[in-house]
Amino acid sequence: MRNKLFISCLLVLFTLGCSNNIQKDFDQALEIAVRNDDVKDAQWKNLLEKLDIAQKNGTVLVQKVKTKEDLINYIWDNYPNINGSTVDLIRKVVKIDTINIYLENSSSMAGYFPVGGNLKFTAPIIDMYNLGTEKTAIQTYYIGNGLTQVDPIRFRKDLSDGRVSVGKSSPLADIFEKIIEDLGKDQVSFLITDAIMSGTNEEVARNKEYNYIHRPELRQTIRETFQKAREKGLSLVVYRFQSSFNGVYYDYRNSTEKRNIENRPFFIFALGNPENLNLIMKNARMEKEFKPTHQLLIGIYISPVTSFKFKSVKGVEYIANQPQQLISYKSKPTKMAEIGLRVDLANLPGYMQNLAYLNKNLRLSTIDHSSKKAINCNEYIDSVEEINATTGEYQINILLPMDYLVTIPNSLTVTLISEPNTWYEELSLEKDDKENFEENKTFALNYMIEGMLMGLGETELPNAIDFTVKIKQ
Question: Which of 123, 217, 274, 297 has the fewest CB atoms lying closer than 10 Å?
Fold first, then answer.
């Protein structure tokens, strides 16, 4: 509702128009608002205030916006740094009518839900009931060699008690194909599984090495399955969790062994359109038990961090203009200057939100005015501080020497390089028989994830942080 009202208010404003100063104020408010996945309360109030001023003045704006597409074009023309995902969020109202939860209930999964229950396995699944909106319906299923719909309350009670009905297995590609085929508009579907790729029981019975030898073929089948997801405009989030496992383990040869494991991985795959998955991820961060060890986004834009707050500027006499991201020096500096920039990284993928990643991938640069080329000045990044890991708040401290400040250019650009997230490679096993088994790794996981990446189409990652500190003497 807020997004719809936001669009309506903008259309009213553009048709009414405003004077140059009012236009400037409004543009500033608009720029802050559309850079966020949602409009925060303070920004929303500010936008409405600018709208009210424009209405009272009643002046005429040169460019009139009559349709939503006109608005999109206006934003593109006037705010070229706005990323595609932000424009998509304006273009399409996020709506999740139904969350479908599928639990693979094959024999290989039974060790996760022994009689008496398994809290570490069950808790994040129950949290999934809260990842939509107040009006989102929940539908729950057992899936394997067949599909059985279960009442959502009964589903979570049986899961908590460890009384899940166990059925026959089916290849993962077939399970995903069924879920993709049934996924309706404005729905998100989750699959809970051990993510072990396999041929059919008959194929493995004929050749015990089938799953090992045929890994490229199994990957291709996954790829073709997720090409169908791409054709439907779907994206994917892969969540990896750990839980105890007490039951029969089936290795790649379908040989069995009773195992009691403290930390065994399981996976939750979320399928939906990118806008809905962004909302799912945002809501998931608020849930107490939904805490994956690893996460992978496929086919989803990363919304770069494009703003910051000045938290400290020491060593020089200055004026900080927060909305314009501008520091003005009132006199020539006489000593080192420390500039503290507070950034909110909460919307970035989890693997980027740690000091090791930040220290490795942060970049600082400026422009040489004579050559017009970028100059690397990473040596002036003094430190990165973790302010609040829960909320994703960090501070970048830049230490500039006196001689640099005297001849300082008019801006410093801060960027964070986006490295591909390849955790699945080191958590994958070539073979998982008795001699090669490792409890925290998954057989052929790399082949499966590669198939998903190829099927959905790998996307080029933009810089995760990209903003400029303007400096004026």
Answer: 217
Parallel, antiparallel, or unpaired: how do β-strands 465-472 and 326-329 relate?
Answer: parallel
* Percentage of the chain modeled with pLDDT above 70: 72
Give this prediction's pTM.
0.74
Q: Rounded to 5 degrees, what are φ and ψ at 341? A: -115, 115
Q: Residue 281 half-sphere exposure, CB side, CA atoms within 13 Å? A: 29
| pLDDT, tens only, 181-214 | 999 988 999 999 999 999 999 999 999 999 999 9
Q: In degrees, to the nearest 5, what angle opens at C-alpha 90 toward C-alphas 89 and 96?
A: 50
Contact yes or no for 218/173 (Cβ under 8 A): yes
Q: Are 302 and 418 in contact (CB under 8 A)?
A: yes
Q: Does 320 score more than 50 pLDDT?
A: yes
Q: CB–CB of 366/412 below 8 Å?
A: yes
The two tokens of residue 388 are: 């609040």
* Rg (the chain; Cα; Å): 26
Rounded Cα distance between 307 and 323, Å, is 9
3-state secondary structure of 397: strand
User: Which of 97, 108, 107, 99 has the alpha carbon at shortest distance from 135?
Assistant: 97
Phi and psi at residue 199, to the nearest 5°: -75, -170
Q: What is the pLDDT of residues 129-157, one digit of tens each?
A: 999 988 899 999 999 878 999 999 999 99
Q: Which of 297, 235, 303, 298 is nearest to 272 (CA)?
A: 235
- Report DSSP state, residue 92: S
How many Å apart are CA 7 and CA 196, to the nearest integer?
45
Q: In the chain, what percentage of residues exceed pLDDT 90?
A: 50
The arrangement of strands across the sheet holding 137-144 comes to 146-150, 137-144, 98-104, 187-193, 256-272, 235-250, 294-298
**What number of residues does the chain have?**
473
**For 120-228, where are the E strands, in sequence order?**
137-144, 146-150, 187-193
d(CA 236, CA 267): 13
Residue bearing the bigger pLDDT, 34 or 327: 327
Identity of residue 203: E
Which ranges constitute the DSSP H helices of 17-67? 20-34, 41-57
d(CA 382, CA 354): 16
Scanning the structure block, which residue is given the tokens 């707050």? 309
173 and 84 Cβ atoms separated by less than 8 Å: no
Residue 468: how many other CB atoms lie within 10 Å: 19
